[in-house]
Amino acid sequence: MTKGNVMDQANERRVTNRPVDRRTMLKGMGAGALAIGAGQVIGELALAKPAFAATSSTPIKIAYISPRTGAFADFSISDSYVLSKIRSSSAYAKGVTVGGKHYSIDIVTADTQSDPNRAAQVAQQLIQQQNVDLILTTSTPETTVPVATAAQQLKTPCLGTVCPWEAWYAGLGGNPGSPTTNFSYNAMFFFGLKEFAGTFLPMWKRIENSTHAAKVFAGMFPNDDDGNAFRMGFPPYAEAAGYTYIDGGAYTDGTTDYSAMIEKFKAGGAEFFVNCPIPPDFNTFWKQAVQADFRPKLATVAKVMLFPSDAVALGRLSNNIATDAWWTPYGPYKSSLTGETAAKLASDFEHSTGSEWVDSLGSSYSLFEVAIEALKASDDPHDHAQVANNLQKVSYSGISGPIDFGAGPAPGVGIIKPVGVQWKPGKKLFGKKFPWQEFVVDNSLNKDIPINGDLVATNT
Fold first, then answer.
1. What sign has the CA pseudo-torsion 357, 112, 169, 237?
2. At how many degrees (to 10) do helices 116-128 and 22-30 cross?
3. pLDDT tens for residues 281-339?
4. What single-letter DSSP state applies at residue 15?
5. Angstrom distance (rounded) from CA 184 to CA 385
6. Parallel, antiparallel, or unpaired for β 216-220 and 244-247?
7. Which of 175, 271, 396, 444 is deepest in the core (most CB within 10 A)?
8. pTM for the full model?
9. Where does CATH 3.40.50.2300 sit in the chain?
10. For 3-191+329-415, CATH number?
11. Distance between CA atoms of 456 and 329, rounded to whole angstroms?
12. Rounded distance, CA 347 to CA 142, Å?
């Protein structure tokens, strides 16, 4: 575990166990045999001690599950900071009043190690052995889907984020094309393929107009939850706008040779590029693409190039790669817990950690905001069905802006509006200059976020 992944050592310990086979786990779930012995599952676990003792009942126990280590660790780089901010807020430090009674709040954390099997395992353990009242989970279908599945099976409220809603919904067994099934113990907020298209296509159009690029795009979509959702959902939006699609094929995560895919893109004359691989795969692909002289006019990438470490790893090859940003410090949004602005949250993060702000600051923080909204609307925080029902009805505005779970494309889904950003050499923002920085170059979907950079062709 790296230094950056050590989490509030004085206050908490983590679930640490060996992973189990997911198919075996799901089979057991279907058979109703989810119970797991403490010797099999529980490693170290401790609860943060509340600053205000409960006066009327047992504490509200909230679990936070994220990929602190492994392939998706960058998604959780802000976890320690966010948790420290949350724990110091009044609602979490002093407790909340629910149904006329005052409750303290305990927060339990678990690291999935970026492993879906382990994500399911720790969710089961937290529900069955730690008796958590509510699960919060974030970052990629590999984390959010198995956690949500366990929560649904074990009838425990669960709120997820940072996962395209279609991948989350399909992973739970729903049909995104006809999203009528209500997974009643689950809710999530993020956005989906409509919003990805609404972010990427305006950028394509502007580059097309300025460079006279051919309306042909390449799709690098793996054979996983995200990739399959993108392959099914994104091309129709682009094709409706007049673009021709070249599918690179449903490759396996961890592939190391993309030469055949690259030659296919080159032969088809692809001038635009879209993807959703795991981060190491894009690093490999992009270096091979440059070596093979595949230079699309604009690369718009998803799931990768979301964090400064991704840009640093590619160095100069990062220049003007575009992606979506689901949270930035540039908007007018404020914490519903403290009134703190988005800019202050990012500034404090940089001063406290020495690291550059990241999108996940906002999304992770918002999980805890929504949790408080749902709990306060309940009569009993330990009534799982009622809290879950309230999660699906939350409508509020916080650090990520307005979110209305009742108005989403599927039951229990709240949509946040992303903006288009490009990676460019950094400028001093909050007192320190970093090598690479996200600049907002398109705000077609969210006019609350000001543009602060020029959209430029990727390979110029």
1. positive
2. 40
3. 999 999 999 999 999 999 999 999 999 999 999 999 999 999 999 999 999 999 999 99
4. B
5. 8
6. parallel
7. 271
8. 0.86
9. 3-191+329-415, 194-325+419-442
10. 3.40.50.2300
11. 22
12. 30
